[in-house]
Each structure stands twice: as structure tokens, then as C-alpha cells.
Amino acid sequence: MVNFDWETVYRSSMYAFRRASGKWFRFTLTGEAGALPDDVASPVKEFGSLTIITAWNPMSKERPLSVNEDANAELRNRLEASAFTFDESYGCSLPGVTPGWREDGFVIYGLSRAEAVEWGVSVRQRSLVFADAEEIGLLFCTDGRFVPCGVEQPDA
């Protein structure tokens, strides 16, 4: 069995969420921990946190597109039934990485770390992107570990 360094894998990916303006904010978690960029700090200030989550490929096991789309539709239904504000998001490979990949998901606003882990566990995710007023990073659903990261924006 191959043992992956999931922190490195997730830090070498790109993430994006749709802002209130309708424009997308794209970023990586490759930088050193520091101040949140305005596009993250603004919704965090309004809601208290943001969490990027998907129901695709539970525990990083690839599944057919139709299965992933159905899982995300079920997650959307649960989010619509919840009191939380949410919007579209995705995670993907960095440009030039082959094979390229993309997983659609959601950005959920206002979750505590514990709630974010609960949502992640419910869709069997290994890790989420989580930001609060203090920091942004990877929140591992398997053990609740948080890895602070910095945000870098890719060149346009």
C-alpha cells in the first residue's frame, strides 16, 4: 500500500470559491501563514469562517463522474436545508500538472472548526480548507488536526 503525504498533496492544489460579487477567488495554500487576503478576510469578517468542502471522491478514492455529481447534489440538498450560507467552490490541480483533475464543491460560511469536521466526516473527506479570523489552512477530518497555511494567488 502506498502511503501519501496528504498535506503536501493538498498544499500543491488550487482552490476557488465564488465571491458575493459573482467573481471567483482562486488560491493555493503554498505560502507561509500570515494575514488573510481581503477576498478571504471579508467573508470571514461577515460570517466568522469559511469552509471549502466537496462530496467528490471520498477519502481520495476516485469515483465515476456521475457518482460524484450525485454525491454533491445530495450535499447541496443538505446545505439548502441548513441555516448556513453557501456558494460554489472547487479544488483542482495546478496548471501543468498531469493528469489534471477538478472536484466541484461548496464554500460554507459560519461553521465552527468542529462543525466543519462534522460536515467533512459526513461526506467522508480526508481534509477541508478552513479559514477563521485568525488563520487559513487544512483541517483534517480524520483527526481534527489543523495545518496553518499561507495564501498565494496564481498568476492570471
Characterise the protein shown here.
By secondary structure, the chain is of the alpha+beta class. The protein has four helices and eight strands. It has an eight-stranded antiparallel β-barrel. Strand 4 and strand 5 (102-109) form a beta hairpin. It is globular.
Main attributes?
globular, 35% strand, 8-stranded antiparallel barrel, 156 residues, alpha+beta
What percentage of amino acids are in beta strands? 25-35%
Q: What integer is the average pLDDT?
A: 93
Q: If strands are numbered along the chain, what order do they take across the biggest sheet?
A: 1-2-8-7-6-3-5-4
Shape: globular
Number of helices: 4
Give the radius of gyration.
14 Å
Give the helix level as a range of percent: 25-40%
Low-confidence stretches: none
Number of strands: 8
How far the N terminus sits from the C terminus, by CA atoms, comes to: 38 Å
- Report the major sheet: 8 strands, antiparallel, barrel
Order of helices and strands: HEEHEHEEHEEE
Structural class: alpha+beta
Strands, helices and their partners?
Elements: H1 6-11, E1 13-18, E2 24-31, H2 38-47, E3 49-53, H3 65-81, E4 85-93, E5 102-109, H4 113-122, E6 127-132, E7 136-140, E8 146-152
Antiparallel strand pairs: 1-2, 1-4, 2-8, 3-5, 3-6, 4-5, 6-7, 7-8
Outline of the structure:
This protein is α+β, with helices and mostly antiparallel strands. It contains four helices and eight strands, in the order H-E-E-H-E-H-E-E-H-E-E-E.
